[in-house]
What we know:
Elements: H1 2-47, E1 50-54, E2 59-61, E3 69-75, E4 78-83, E5 89-95, E6 100-101, E7 114-117, E8 121-127, H2 128-137, H3 139-165, H4 168-184, E9 192-194, H5 199-206, H6 210-222, E10 227-228, E11 235-237, H7 241-252
Antiparallel strand pairs: 1-8, 2-7, 3-6, 3-8, 4-5, 4-7, 9-11, 10-11
Helix pairs in contact: 2-3, 4-6, 4-7, 5-6
Amino acid sequence: xxxxxxxxxxxxxxxxxxxxxxxxxxxxxxxxxxxxxxxxxxxxxxxxxxxxxxxxxxxxxxxxxxxxxxxxxxxxxxxxxxxxxxxxxxxxxxxxxxxxxxxxxxxxxxxxxxxxxxxxxxxxxxxxxxxxxxxxxxxxxxxxxxxxxxxxxxxxxxxxxxxxxxxxxxxxxxxxxxxxxxxxxxxxxxxxxxxxxxxxxxxxxxxxxxxxxxxxxxxxxxxxxxxxxxxxxxxxxxxxxxxxxxxxxxxxxxxxxxxx
Length: 260
């Protein structure tokens, strides 16, 4: 009886802790979503950007093109693509609503990547010289610009750490977790996501082969961390995003030393 009581207490405590963690995550996502809304309103009010509607496959700018504008995503999903030395396209970043594009062109005066729409969306076009002039007089706008640059640096670092330190299954799980978290911060559903990338593109982004991505997705499905609504489709059901995050974290935990 004592053991049953202890087990029930431990289970209740664990459930309460999970509930608190999820509540904090929901609050953080709500704050992040509100910050995106406020940022877009500030940019729209202070800069009056040119609005550009785009469709899947359309390029916003191309590598080698003269730099002159920054771009803010108001809706849709975008990818940045680099050309490797052997002529292959390499997906180097994903961009969601509220993200900025074009920072790669500031230093050299030329865009270093292609920016490509992955579905229908709207881009706000800002002349860089006008952004600088507006930031000089509006500290809030300068802070927004710095925060966008900082997030891009942090995301590049996280992507590199994932490629360098995670095994294949965890790398794919972390990719799905990042996609779901990005949607959550924008107030969108995360239990089912539509991947706007082929498995070959996912492998390209994660530094893996198409076959390795497919096997990793299958193993994640067998562990019931994800489900596919239909075979071969890009719709992925994620029962619990926290479980994906826990799977990734477990992959980072060193294995216990074996005593000789």
